[in-house]
Batch of 3 targets.
Target 1
Amino acid sequence: MYDCQTLMKLLYPYLDGELDIKESLRVQEHLQECPYCAEVFRQEKGFLQELKTSALIPSAPAHLQDRLRRSTKPLVLLQQKEADVLKGPRPRSSTTLLAATMAMFIMIMAGLILYVLPKQAKMSSQELAKTLVEIDRAAVELHEGILSGRDHFDIMSSDPAVIVGWVQQGLDFPLVLPQEEVSSMHLVGGKVVPFQEKKAALLGYEDKNYRVSLLVTTPMPAQVFEGKETPIQNLFFDKRKEIQYKNISFNLSKYKGYYALTWTDSQYSYVLVSDRKARIAEACRICHGGNDRHKVDGFDSLL
Amino acid sequence: MLRQDFETMTLQYVDSLYHFALLLTRERDYAEDLVQETYLRAYRFCDRYECGTNYKAWLFTMMRNIFINKFHQRAREISLSEMDEVKENGYESPNGTLSSARSILEKGIFRADLEKALNCLPAQLKAVIVLKDIEGFDYKEIAKILGCPVGTVMSRLWRSRNFLKKTLKDYYEGRSVQKARMETA
């Protein structure tokens, strides 16, 4: 039979139902023999019971259930799309074929117009510079709006699949985000924003106590600055710096204390906004830190 | 688990999940974000849940892992503030504690006192009380959720329950003395 000292050690495991049958029987045996321990156990049992019935579980806010239900919708849509892809293309009706032909014709015409028009109505470098300034400034305003709480993301999640699934519904171009984390930054949210008469995806990344915004949209005017640093008067910017890296022209500017890095590749235009240059460089690793081909070694020293 | 069942299965624990998230993050906005992250992760990986095991414990473990991995800053702030833990004391009898809870009239006061006492506990100790005495997990499940050995769970339970008994007793005695003084006056 257990002694009183041993029994006190087994007090909670016994009352919590953690002892096996053999041990439980030995405890019970002692309790029948020892009125002191029996009284302690009886009081403790009452205390635990009181704790269980009196402690209040705060109810989740009423809107949380709706928020949770809504949050899986993009994933459901993604899964449906994946299932459709696995099933293969559906047989096309003659109407679908006609529509596809017309769509192709319109795309060819649009391509021709886009190719010919810029040559006919070429913007002056000052006009392009002004456009770039507007782009940076708009991106900084969006970044600041989210930070100050004036504006909010449409969806908050650190899961790229969830963000893409949600944001993609409002975009007219395909958005692809890296699925694996290679940087210490992680996604916090995303939204679709009107930008320079187009649509853009605004994505928020966070690392410890700082935030970086990435704006992705369809290609904007090419970069035009030739000098290393070009001061632009009366346009709110301190200065603008052009960086050539891997055949892409980057523009770094500062507005309202925030740095904005703008560049355009063959598919998209991007603007990265943060309060420090080093954070901009770190943010590049979100997409370009994963494999050797896309690494951006040495880029931070150019900023 | 079928995805169709996911919503019903998971939303029944929304209050418990929110409570635990609040315990981890200590802020409503953070807590809501953490619940949503957990919900989404659970949805994506619900095919990995082993039928027959405790689904609520699976969700809680997932939530704690997300908190550590995704809410770095918050997790660091909380762990730093946990440096001064409750000291190991001898056994505290629940005798005086129960006196305050016994009377129906004092039920509301006891509940308020318990809430106050729970809030005085460091998060690590409060967590074991919440997980054991309120949520009803067993020691092994709590150890898995909190990522610590079963022995640690047991010693934390001992300390936190003793602390609660002592604090509640002090509240009760304090009120009794006040009451006696008022009657004398």
Target 2
Amino acid sequence: MKYNEIVGNIVSIDRQITKKPLDYKQILSKYGKKKFITILGKMIKNRFLDEEIIQLIKEGVAIHQHPTVGQEASQTVAFSLLEKEDYGVPNHRGWGWAIGKGLDLKRMMAELMGKKTGYCRGKGGPYLADRENNLFLRSGIQGSYVSLAAGIALGLKMQQSNNVCLCLFGDGSSNAGYVHEGMNIAATSKLPVIYFCENNLYALFTPYQETTSVADIADRAVGYGIPGYIVDGMDAFAVIEVMTEAIKRARNGEGPTLIESKTYRYEGHTAYDKFSYGGYRSKEEVEEWKKRDPITLFTQRLLEFNLLTSQELESLKEKTREEIKEAVEYATQSAYPEPEDYLEQVYAEKEVFF
Amino acid sequence: MTKEILTFADAIKEGIREEMQRDKRAFLMGEDIHISNCTVTRGLVDQFGKERVRLMPISENGFSAAAVGASVTGMRPIVEIMFGDFILVAADAICNQAAKLRYMSGGQFHTPVTYRMSLCGMGGAGAHHSQSLEALPLHFPGLKVIYPSTPYDAKGLIKSAIRDEDPVVFYEHKLLYPVKGEVPKEDYLVPLGKGIIRREGKDLTLVSYGYMARLSLEVADELAKEENINVEIYDPRSLRPFDYEQLLKSIEKTGKLIIIEEDTKIGGVGAEIAAMVAEEGLFLLEAPIKRIAGKETPAPAGKYGNPFVIPTKEEIKSAIKKLLSKNK
């Protein structure tokens, strides 16, 4: 599908492609004002945090980062729709999933800097995890998430839990064998999992069409006999709508859903990517996507629907800036783990070296 | 204690059955496990149903990772990988995901999964179904690696593995499956990480595990009768953690060490044992360490070729005699 065909739309893959224009009234009726403001707050927090981290990296702070700037209506919104006990399985591109799932900024920043006060005691770094919010460890192996998430959903189903699992992966990793294996397992046993594929058009420096057999990754849902959707990943409302439906399906025991979110990263693959403007894509292309900035778009709609005032927006931004500043301070001042801390948590027992 | 005579395969089955009865969270996943090539899980579906004996697609990496996922929700998956060779297919799930989850998450998540798989180069099934790959998972801190040689140990160890809070790779040698032995009917455990002296002797310490431990035992008995040579046999049972304390005590007594393994020699389990003994107990030794291992080839197809690449009784026997004669 051409990008302009999905703007403001959710397109379902049911062999005969049907368009479904957004019904804002209906979406608004599903959640209260508070929820929309929370989601906007998380999107803003995500943007500011990413920008702050990019700045810190430029200043020489060692943080491993794959920026999410531009993808806030996509992964950040999707993870914001989970309950605390629902599981989230992230991929490398963050930290929208972490903020969406409700992680604490201070402990996040501390972990990213490898400090002892971080979520993983400074040993995970970018491989964030939070047991309390059921955010599973971010894996560094592309596509592994899809099989890991199938297992989490299997465990939930076997224990008759009402909770679901949301799994994030990208257009690049959609081609991994791990993805096929996990989706087949999830589909076969009708597991409560939502597969959320962010198609930001580039797998590192390679345009996804060069290495992907389909134009729309959602088409692959047909091969697993599960519903597939393409959603405008720059439009928070569209993501809210399609995610709400997929979560409902999963909770009702109807099995997995594959959602392809068409989105775009403004920044490079990492903060060190020198080729992001003009190496493998044009500056014009980046500027074109920025015209439909997800945060601007969502903010405009919320203002339009009288769910937000300009004053509220300003104070939200101010509060977020303050929060990030505090988090960076907290992380910077926190201590690194002691040498012996690096030898722990290998096994349940303290010392099993051989 | 009431005892029964069970095959190695049935001993593992009974261990799994008891643990699944004891703990509702324990369940089986794998390919064809309702019928089970190796017979270990055959029939368990009749007792526990398809919910707890879950058939998996031919996706070893996918379902080995799914087991990690299921375990973090509180389940205790027992995964069968039909042939140990397929650990290479599932290596990411086992070595990257399961092994590292506890450490990377700073202890927030852990993954109590048991990965069972058969090994052996003597069935004649060739290079993709008969390799000995026990050295591979040894290289990953976070994993425990178990390799029993008797029905008693197999049952006690599989029960410990299922109850363990860490991911365990549990190897079963195909030629051991029909071997019979006494197994208690009552609940008992064999702890992970504890070796055993299988046979006492004063002349030489022989380390071996799995089927090779059994073969070595026969060799030792024959040598005692034929040559009046008394070989002490140490079976570590767990390759990681490895119980070196008992091994070093044995070497202190005999002064000589020979290691028998079916796996290839370079970078193998024997190499690790030899290195550890050299580091910790070099001056206990009166002679150089000797390793008898598989030849540096993939496993040949057909049973005819096996004796040319895998240690035989004759090879072990002559190596022992040679090692002892050098020191006379």
Target 3
Amino acid sequence: MESNITRIFTDSMILVGITVCSYMFIRSIQVRAKGLAILNPTLWSGIFIIGLIQFANLDFTSYMIANKTITFFLAPMTIALGFSMYDGWHLIRRYLKPLTIITVVTVLISLSLAQIGAKLLGLEGAIAYSVMPKSVTSPIGILIIDRIGGISELAVFGIIWAGVVGNLFGPIIFKILKIKTALAQGYSLGAVAHVLGMSRANEMGKEQGAAASAAIGFTGILTILVIELFLRMNIIHPLV
Amino acid sequence: MLILNQLMILFLFGLAGHLLAIIVPLPALILAMLLLFISLLMGWIKKDKIEMVSSQLMAISGLFFIPMIVGIIEYWSDIRAVIIPFLLVVTFGTVGSLALTALILEWMIHRQDAKEAREVKLEKLERGKRSHGE
């Protein structure tokens, strides 16, 4: 009897189903809680499934193999970012010069703050490298980790955490610093907190949302270029 | 059909990205993304040909990362000791760069607005003078 039930949970459709169902379930809770960022469905679904593996004997290897189906969609999603960039283009076209400058500045700020913080708290090697892509969207972050070395799972965790932080604190920061233009709010949210920042920006207004979606694409590309440049100039040494 | 059709366009751009990656030293996915952006901008491909799948993929993008989070188990013994400082670095880094980015951008936008307003005023003034001279 027990072995029959265990067998159900090695079936790949059921294993993918667990991922999808827990995501949709936590997401519906989040919607009911008016989009409270800390209820991030990705984060909590991940923790829930880790709990199942640790305490309910769900098989880790078969879960990971079955859920390659889900991970696959990261590739078309990354390409679809090109559409988001186009979607925000009409808004950012007018301020092309300040936005070009700010994209360079924000990429450099993000990378250096990550490295300074890692130094201060004594993170080293692969762990310190996994902080670096924190402000870009995850598929781009994974590409960066592939290039410089580091633990991609940890990097994704950091990326999602950065998104949650940006999503939670964004509106508070804007209030304290008196940031009022829709473009500055949206673009900075997208540039620092990627897709999660974009979802908060969409709640703030349509202009903010469009600026955020453009910011995700542009900062992502620029981060890759800057890291490539740093690698060529031997400022960063790849671990792989 | 509709979904598959639009997904196929994304795959075709993926293929184009891979082909381009042979000569351009950037990740194929990024090149595909740029190609899609440029094609939309140039009007080579209509917005509604790709809009549905793209916006749906973005809307549920969180789902695709769950297996990656679960995969952290494999490294848990390595990272258990550093997870708190790691999250602290990410938290402060994010708050810091968000504040700086928003501040600098807000300042630059105001500056451009003020400059444009000044230029418009100058133009008006000049036009006024000219018409006066005639």
